Amino acid sequence: MNATIIKNGVVLTPGKRAERKDIRITGKTIDQIASVIQPTREDSVVDASGKLVTPGFVNTHTHTGSTLLRGAGGGLPLQEWLRTVMWPAEATFTETTVRAASDLAMAEMIRSGTTMFMDMYHLDMLHLAERVTEVGMKAVLGRGMIALDGRWTERLEAAEELVKTIQSDKSGLLKAAVSPHALYTCPPDFIRKAGELAEKYDVIRHTHVSETAQEVQHHLSSHGVSPCRHLHELGFLTPKTVLAHAVHVTEEELLLLKENRSAVSHNPRSNLKLGSGVAPVRKMLKSGIPVGLGTDSAASNNRLSVLADMQTAALLHAGTEENSTAVQAEDWMSAAWNSGASMLGFPDSGRLEEGSAADVVLIRSDRLHMTPDIHERAADHLLFAAESADITDVWSNGKALMREGSLLTLDEEKVRAEAEAEWRKIAESNV
Amino acid sequence: MNATIIKNGVVLTPGKRAERKDIRITGKTIDQIASVIQPTREDSVVDASGKLVTPGFVNTHTHTGSTLLRGAGGGLPLQEWLRTVMWPAEATFTETTVRAASDLAMAEMIRSGTTMFMDMYHLDMLHLAERVTEVGMKAVLGRGMIALDGRWTERLEAAEELVKTIQSDKSGLLKAAVSPHALYTCPPDFIRKAGELAEKYDVIRHTHVSETAQEVQHHLSSHGVSPCRHLHELGFLTPKTVLAHAVHVTEEELLLLKENRSAVSHNPRSNLKLGSGVAPVRKMLKSGIPVGLGTDSAASNNRLSVLADMQTAALLHAGTEENSTAVQAEDWMSAAWNSGASMLGFPDSGRLEEGSAADVVLIRSDRLHMTPDIHERAADHLLFAAESADITDVWSNGKALMREGSLLTLDEEKVRAEAEAEWRKIAESNV
Questions:
Q1: Is the peptide bond before B260 cis (omega within 30 degrees of 0)?
Q2: Does A417 touch chain B (CB under 8 A)?
Q3: Structural domains in chain A?
Q4: B51-80 core/surface letters (b: 16 or more CB in 10 A; e: else)
Q5: Given A59, A327, A351, B31, which is the most exposed site by the fewest CB atoms within 10 A?
Q6: What is the pLDDT of residue A430?
Q7: Beta strands A204-209; B44-47: pairing state
Q8: Burial A253-287 (b: 16+ CB within 10 A, else e)
Q9: Predicted complex: ipTM over 0.90
């Protein structure tokens, strides 16, 4: 089998010194990493001189279907923004809106080096499953369920249909999640049933929890128990559970997460933009709770760039902890790469190691904003200076999704044009 | 006189709805803004379709001479980082190091849309004054003074020489500052003398204050008075004073700043990266204290992009105040543009108005990460999505510094090569 050899790049690995190395991709796998790899005549050679080499970034929480709401209603607090902007607009969404939105999301994610994401959305997820495999990304997909109207069976059946479809897929790119939206949009018994469904198929449980102080207060006064304890009592905290946000959680709740080996998707840009607050990530990491990084939807970010969220997180927690070493660079890289991938059920992704899945990203470091471009500073450049325009090449499972700045599996101009056209339809229908 | 007409761009103005407008630049000035401007045959026409049009960004605090230390010693707290990384490296700097560093800084600033900056550095500032006018940016320059060794006269004379040189310059691009480094590096009587020097020439007073909690504690125990009150007692707080950082300031100190009409350079990325903390910007703005945005040096940022600092600030204060409307978008735009320019003594800059200085920036908004690209969301795209690679064109005082992504007054490849070569010299001399 012909291989691709990525030569002369500076390889970044959490906790290790950045080093110039060559990497060979054969099929879907990184099968060699060495100081010098000699290509055979059949191999393709990619020159990564002046570039950093990283694993594909992993987005542990997003809602690709709402990407057309990017920047809508900026400056509103979460509940008001959901009630007055997001939900009314989403009520007008058709299949074509959501397809245009997801393509836009995947195009932006690939451009910013993301190869894997976990998506929670209530519309058109069967189509998304198909589309992800066409585009060549990896994804964990869960049908977002809001269950205040009593139509529980309908919701759970649709969720189950998605799980079954994904489990019959042979691409190796997909996994399923069961995703009740949140404790404030799903009655406790519904959460329990959702957990049972996840158990039946051995898939990820994914929900929003304790995003705002107000939400936690409401939950305490309605139910007399903290949200994470409530999830625990409902059987929802497992080693295959990923909780989005967990901004306002107590030490006791962190202990429950730790004991249940549940993971957190930290979504710093969304939490900041919506005024939700700052999650206690240093404490989570210190307890050994797995932490990944999520963009949340473009509507509250406004990027879908895990790189941007990693950079925001690195600045944010050093600053708010008033301790520049509160969380180490290697912990942010793990969150963006291997920890994120592991919590999504892809333990062989998110790492540049022999035998790992070939999810690889090249990032130019020969830029003004990363000069001097020296190995000892490569991690600092990545965490505090690189931007998505510096990313030139992306492989997912050995398949090239972007080469030399051009997307290969999505038509960028068409994706943009369709997104604009779909938004115009919605805007006109609301006049 | 031939004019440049910028056509079809979406003009962003703090507090106003973004609107498609044409802008005419004649000489150094914006002399017309209108829905449609018909060019004469002699005029140059720039098509800004698919672009945002903003004023030049203003960097109210930086140290361009130390740009080669970008990313050095990442993860150390401020005092340790100064003592073990910054000051030892700077002790080896020669004239050529600092010139390469300043050119690198100016190139990166122009690329990220910055047309004006205030620089505090202790080396080679006379040369920088000349270089700024060649490059065509605007700058306020002050010789950074550390005065713990008793050689006060020497320091003050060098500062005065810079002030006199700048005041004899006819370009209109330069202003002078008197810049004692900080209360912890300058004895109180030296600060008083520095203030008197600024008074004599009617120039800006610029110093660091209350950057870390530790520094404030030390000052209180050594001097029995808070840093800002101390500056006030030393006659240093005036309407021409710009204080860098002011992270750890009390309500009483904010009142002193307000009463003296002194301004603050908020440097969020540096304050976060170094673990210094979060400045009370909402309170400052509520008190009417002018707030600008500074990158601080590349060594602690690692960017020299006011756009990046504005974006970080917008996220940070919404999140830490747990209120997405704590500071309005228009306040961040004013800080980055007109408030910043005014506090640096250029009240006609930082605004897109007829009669203003022609400091103009074009930013592509036809990008995946700013789709849908609609006027109502332009401010949100700028604050939460744009990146420096989206910036294509920059004019300062009517002179084009970047056109269609290419720097015109600096040779980008040469700037990068010289910076790398100078850093290698330093690294080798330290072996």
A1: no
A2: no
A3: 3-55+350-412 (2.30.40.10), 57-343 (3.20.20.140)
A4: bbbbbbbbbbbbbbbbbbbbbbbbbbbbee
A5: B31
A6: 67
A7: unpaired
A8: bbebbeebebbbbbbbbbbbbbbbbbbbbbebbee
A9: yes
